[in-house]
Amino acid sequence: MDMNDRYSRQIILPGFGTAAQENLGQAKVLIVGMGGLGCPVLQYLVGVGVGTIGIMDADRISKSNLHRQLLYDEKDLGQLKVDIAASKAYAQNSLIQVDIYPFEINKENAIQIIGKYDLILDATDNFAAKYLINDVCVWLKKPIVFGAVSGYEGQVTVFNLASKDANPIHYRHLFPVQPAANEIASCEETGVIGVLPGIIGTMQAAEAIKLITGLGSPLYNRMLTYNFLTAHWFEIEMNANVAVPIIDENFINATNYQIDCAMMEADLEDIDIAEIDVSQFLDFKKDSSVFILDVRELHEYPVIDFSHAQIPMSKLKEAIHELPEQPICVICHQGIRSVYAAQLIKLHKQVEAYSLKGGLTAYFNKVSNEQ
After folding, report:
1. Which has the least CB within 10 A, 258, 323, 341, 355?
2. What pLDDT, in 10s, does the model give residues 125-160?
3. DSSP state, 166?
């Protein structure tokens, strides 16, 4: 099949042409994670003609994958995701090359593999991988198209775009400290609506195409969030965090990316916490007897002016003695860290502790809908 015939519908676009198509054909892209995000990313990058695509995932296909990972079907159950994905990619476009990595990314292989590619797409679902990918890409000066989904909400952005900035913004500028394993619930615990990773993964593919071709304005310094329930998109501007450490090979080698659950206090599981909705929280805001504590990291966005204190989750245990002896309502981004923080406070201070269900995401969604 003639290349111009295959890609004719995009080549004729204003500003695209054969030059953009050649850039796509020469590009080398790595997709880490072939789950709900990685599937649509791969399908669209294969479709537009990205020349070399690496796919990395150790998992095998299970029934619970099929509601959102539409690249696979029932006859693929039990097979390695990367094997089936590569087979279907070649069936879609025989002109491209697919590199298969049927194992997890780790400190032993990350530098070597990421170093082979021009652009990295983070389609993973765990913090160990996200922080490792980020740190290696920062050191190697590789741009990242980041995606994440949980429940009914997803985010997409571009990190580490060195061509735009001498000190580019990356994942640690937003979340400097990796959370412990049970500090934030996983997709298995919170669930995810099937179409959401398809939407976010397609957006990741779109950002990759823009970066490769030079078309449009990438989502750099901007985090785009989509809420399935409200069909609202909102954008958060990202700024540099001067406190972020220098990331180099020594930093990567010294970092423990597999933070163990044992770091958390087992006793907390038995402590019940009242999760309040936004309406109750609005009442708490007016009640001077309730202390509102923000446990997000200091450089997380958006900035708010209605908490009485901000103590990052990573430092809360050491600072609990500073909190007042009165009811405390804890808030965070999505209402996950705040539950653990409230349990920790209740254990050590013996005061009433509450958590805002859905976090600041739920709060701003309700406030914006009522305006």
Report:
1. 258
2. 888 999 999 999 999 999 999 999 988 899 999 999
3. S
- What top-level class would CATH report for the domain 265-370? alpha beta
Q: Is 31 exposed, middle or buried (0-12, 13-18, 19+ CB in 10 A)?
A: buried
Q: How far is CA 360 from CA 318, 334, 346, in A?
A: 24, 6, 21
Structural domain spans, the chain: 3-261, 265-370
Total H helices, total E strands in the chain = 15, 13
Taking the C-alpha atoms of residue 7 and residue 129, their distance in angstroms, rounded to an integer, is 34
- Of 173, 193, 189, give the one whose Cα is nearest residue 181: 189
Fold match between 3-261 and 265-370? Answer: no
Shortest CA distance to 101 belongs to which of 24, 204, 28, 30?
30
Bridge partners, 270 (sequence order) = none
Cα separation of 10 and 3, whole Å? Answer: 12
Which fold is adopted by the domain 3-261? Rossmann fold (3.40.50)
Residue ranges in 141-178 assigned as alpha helix (H): 171-174
Tens digits of residue pLDDT in 73-128: 999 999 999 999 999 999 999 999 999 999 999 999 999 999 999 999 999 988 89
Q: Does residue 187 have an active-site annotation?
A: yes
What is the b/e burial string over 178-199, where b = at least 16 CB atoms within 10 angstroms of the residue's CB?
A: bbbbbbbbebeeeebbeebbbb
Q: Which of 39, 137, 329, 332 is catalytic?
A: 332
Select which of 39, 137, 187, 261 is catalytic: 187
* 39 flagged as catalytic: no
- Residue 168, token pair as written in the block: 């580019």
Instruction: Dump the DSSP string for 36-98.
Output: TTHHHHHHHHHHHT-SEEEEE---B--GGGTTT-TT--GGGTTSBHHHHHHHHHHHH-TTSEE
